[in-house]
Design goal:
It contains seven helices and 23 strands. The chain has helices at about 1-35, 85-90, 95-100, 120-125, 225-230, 245-250, 255; strands spanning about 45, 55-60, 65-80, 105-110, 130, 140, 155-170, 185, 195-200, 200-205, 210-215, 230, 240, 260-265, 270-280, 285-300, 305-315, 320-325, 335, 340-350, 355-365, 370-380, 400. Helix content is about 15%, strand content about 40%.
Length: about 400
């Protein structure tokens, strides 16, 4: 009897080994179909403290994609962590002497106005609405402007920093945890509902640039690369901007322009917001002002967190305050892990007033089930006096969307 039991056990082990062999062969076969390959893209260069030039190739420090710099922007960064002593040690980095010398400081007082503009009456203040396009979830609108004072009125100093308008290599777009159609603009003046996006454009801070060089004449795959840049072997970098790039920048400056960047960290999760004014659309009943805003969530800690909910407050100069709640962002509930710490997306908001404020929270959940609210730093929505329509003569494959049909992705 003991011998039979022993034989039975050996038979079970043999079957188990056969299954392991089958699993191993399937795994090898799967890897053979989709092998992981390493390809040399160029030679990594030493990072610079001073500004990079047009045509500089780079790798994104956070998202890892290949890109090329088109032109720089000068932005004022308002980091609320610098005014909270408990956060400075965890999130702030010590600047180099050259950075300290270059950095200029200014101050801004972030607060919501609770007064009604002179031209508005009580009826306008209660009937005007501020709304977010394509926002799933519960939306509440109220005329209680006193709640808008929840925006922290303390003084926040801003530091001038360099950001870059860049092109993303289309081969890397499917692998980026960021929207590759983040740069959007309004359509022609005769269309009140059109919203267009140019794929493969992004804004990158100076500290996220990892420069590299390449001997290839066309090292980046993007339809605008050859239209904007030309190969110049004797130049440094060896790609220089064409006249089409300069003309495109000048004509589209109003909706490309970035001026303010807002940052705040809660429990090792940093939120960065960059708002952009897109323009005004006149209707027979009213004027509608549009903005887009780009948001990055970055996990600075060691524990993974997942975004579960969003809670927005939108205050309009017309006197309305709106609350928007919903699951996730753009239809996703991204996980921010030490291996993939960041997620970036963009969305849009429109007001029936020339200015307003936005702020809110993201509800995040850790692996152990602990949930907390991560603050979204308050930021202003300011219009500009010159509302120039964008020119898209060099972007024939821009994608159009209906800005008011509530079906474009799952934007908040």
């Amino acid at each position: 009897m003991g011998l039979l039991v022993q034989v039975f056990k050996w038979d079970q082990r043999w079957r188990l080994l056969q299954r392991c062999d089958l699993v191993l062969r399937r795994t090898i076969k799967k890897q053979a179909v989709h092998p992981t390959k390493l390809a040399e893209v160029g030679r990594l260069m030493e990072a610079r403290d001073d500004r990079y030039e047009t045509g500089q190739l780079f790798l994104h420090r956070i998202f890892g994609y290949r890109g090329v710099i088109l032109f720089p922007w000068t932005a004022r960064v308002y980091d609320r962590d610098l005014h909270n002593p408990s956060k400075v040690n965890a999130t702030a980095t010590t600047p180099t002497p050259s950075q300290q010398q270059r950095t200029k400081e200014a101050s801004i007082r972030v607060k919501a106005s609770t007064s009604t503009p002179p031209e508005a009456n009580t009826a306008d203040a209660t009937t005007s609405t501020a709304y977010l396009t394509n926002a799933p979830g519960v939306t509440e609108t109220t005329g209680n402007v006193e709640a808008a004072t929840q925006v922290d009125p303390k003084e926040v100093k801003g530091k001038v920093q360099t950001f870059y308008q860049v092109l993303i290599d289309t081969r890397d777009c499917p692998h980026i945890r960021a929207q590759t159609e983040a740069v959007t603009f309004l359509g022609n003046q005769d269309s009140n509902r059109s919203l267009y996006a140019i794929p493969g454009l992004d804004y990158v801070s100076h500290e996220d640039i990892m420069p590299y060089s390449s001997s290839e004449k066309s090292p980046l795959q993007h339809e605008l690369f050859d239209k904007f840049l030309t190969h110049a072997p004797d130049a440094d970098p060896p790609f220089v901007g064409q006249d089409t790039l300069k003309a495109w920048q000048e004509k589209n400056h109003p909706w490309l322009d970035m001026s303010d960047v807002h940052k705040e960290t809660t429990e090792n999760v940093r939120i960065t917001v960059i708002p952009f004014y897109m323009g005004c659309r006149e209707t027979p009943a009213s004027s509608v002002y549009w903005w887009r805003y780009c948001i990055r969530l970055e996990n600075l800690g060691k524990a993974s967190v997942q975004l579960r909910e969003r809670h927005w407050r939108i205050f309009s100069l017309s006197g309305t305050l709106e609350t928007v709640r919903g699951r996730g962002v753009v239809g996703q509930e991204p996980i921010l892990s030490p291996r993939l710490p960041a997620f970036q997306y963009s969305s849009h908001v429109s007001l029936q007033a020339p200015s307003g404020h936005m702020w809110g929270t993201f509800r995040l959940e850790r692996e152990d089930g602990y949930s907390f609210d991560c603050k979204i730093p308050p930021f202003s929505l300011e219009s500009k006096p010159d509302d120039l329509g964008p020119s898209t003569s060099v972007t024939p494959t821009t994608h159009g969307h209906d800005a008011g049909d509530g079906k474009r992705d799952d934007r908040d």
